[in-house]
Design a protein that fits this description.
Number of strands: 9
Number of domains: 1
Distance between the termini: 14 Å
Order of helices and strands: EEEHEEEEEHHEH
CATH class: Mainly Beta
Strand order of the largest sheet: 1-2-3-9-8-5
CATH topology: OB fold (Dihydrolipoamide Acetyltransferase, E2P)
Helix content: 10-25%
Structural class: alpha+beta
Strand content: 25-35%
CATH superfamily: RNA polymerase II/Efflux pump adaptor protein, barrel-sandwich hybrid domain
Largest sheet: 6 strands, antiparallel
């Protein structure tokens, strides 16, 4: 299981790459493997400001549809539009080309509540 140590994680199996007050969000390798083949990624919240834990989109796999929860309060400034034609990028490269959104974080102190790679490993191995 690939869990890059430089990223932060949520209990909802999302990864967060922090670059100042802009963060990139996707789902983890564990999440994509649990979901199976991803056939659709929907994000209709572009240019909206959402609160922490609000649903920003959904991931549809062959077997199920899962909500995506925003790990911090902020404005969704970018959606990885390549996922519209190639949702399988989430399966093939979850930490690279399979990223989902970029968010302008309104409260960077919320980033302190995210999980480290070690904490996330503990959750998924429990």
């Amino acid at each position: 299981m690939n869990i890059p140590s430089e990223l932060k994680y949520t209990k909802d199996h999302e990864w967060i790459k922090i670059d100042g007050d802009t963060i990139t969000i996707g789902i983890t390798d564990f999440a994509q493997s649990e979901l199976g083949d991803i056939v659709y990624v929907e994000v209709e919240t572009l240019d909206e400001t959402l609160e922490i834990e609000e649903v920003f989109g959904t991931v549809e796999a062959v077997k199920t549809v899962s909500d995506l929860f925003l790990p911090v309060t902020g404005e969704i400034i970018e959606f990885n539009e390549s996922l519209e034609d190639e949702p399988e990028k989430v399966n093939n490269d979850p930490y690279g080309e399979g990223w989902m959104i970029k968010v302008k974080c309104s409260d960077v102190s919320q980033l302190d509540d995210l999980l480290s790679a070690e904490d996330y490993k503990t959750i998924i191995s429990a």
